[in-house]
């Protein structure tokens, strides 16, 4: 047996969404801090640029080599849409299709690089198959939580009934929660996609962006369902970047009292309807709360902020409210001591980041995994879900009521914050150990495969 190998090369291959690319990149950096890996990071040019722009240090400090993935050129999908950060919702299926069609370019990349290991994502079990066909082991890295994955997996294997955690599952899941403005997805389809194929291709273990302090029982249940050891890698919150524009926001936040401000944002892929935005604006006007609200429009729907908000709104709230168009330095905002709550769609990264910084959530889930992520944090005592009306819309009064209970009222808010802080501490205590464990496991897989190849 040859045990002299001192370095292994890992090829990282995330799906093109921001909420996948960045966790893969953070994981790369963390693995490099533990073991002598060399990392190839494969994504589209626009995603690679986006990572480069977010960096504090030079990329050469990290021993990460970017490898550009060329998507086929489709007339309706120019290269600036080769990421989900600004792609209009109607072009998402085309982006998915282009990504699938890039499998032959990816096959060439794998043949040229011959890495020791591939780390792949939920949307491309085909990449794992390509690697296996060339004798390269592949490990699935799940950027969603264990709760949603065990829910979908259970649904796929056992159907609708007997999900062992009733606080998470309830029967009106599809009827109401999934009827958001931004689109809907059938649980059956998601279950099929999530559970079929992706786990099966993963070599012995599955890495998952979570921590035991938040999801232990779901991690255990998922391990049983998918017959793979689930290895948590923690929240993977990106390091803060010190930029002028960000310090402007921090300066503004510093004028606000501790725990007095709500951050309102719905992730990197969601666009609210005009009606829903008006309800949120009206809700923010009903109570005297400080807020930062990130307002987003996609290319095909680029109306001005003024037109999309109630007349005179900006003027009326200018002392206590800040509207950011398009994008905000979320982690830095959540880390600020003035944060009293995060009104969020409860995308998995947002949930993890909020808990990491001990900020309670005011949940406004829109689609896919978000309703289930919401129930997890409500169950954990660190979130309050906004009640929606029978049409699935969030109305101003309920928005105001929920923000008031979390941010403005001591009796309810302090308990939620204490829980968020408690979970935050657990998360931070686990962080180091989980990355060590993940790096060890990956190293062993590489080593085992290396020995097999050497002896054959
Ligand atoms: N994000 C950000 N600024 C924004 C919007 C999003 O930094 O204005 C980041 C956020 O910190 C998180 C990710 O984008 O890391 C969004 O991931 P999440 O899973 O919450 O939602 P998704 O975009 O996948 O729906």
UniProtKB/TrEMBL annotation:
It is an enzyme of class 2 (transferase). GO terms for biological process: glycoside biosynthetic process. InterPro entries: Glyco_transf_N, UDP_glucos_trans, UDP_glycos_trans_CS. GO terms for molecular function: UDP-glycosyltransferase activity. Residues 10-236 form the Glycosyltransferase N-terminal domain. Pfam families: Glyco_transf_N (PF26168), UDPGT (PF00201). PANTHER family: GLYCOSYLTRANSFERASE. Belongs to the UDP-glycosyltransferase family. This is Glycosyltransferase. It comes from Forsythia ovata.
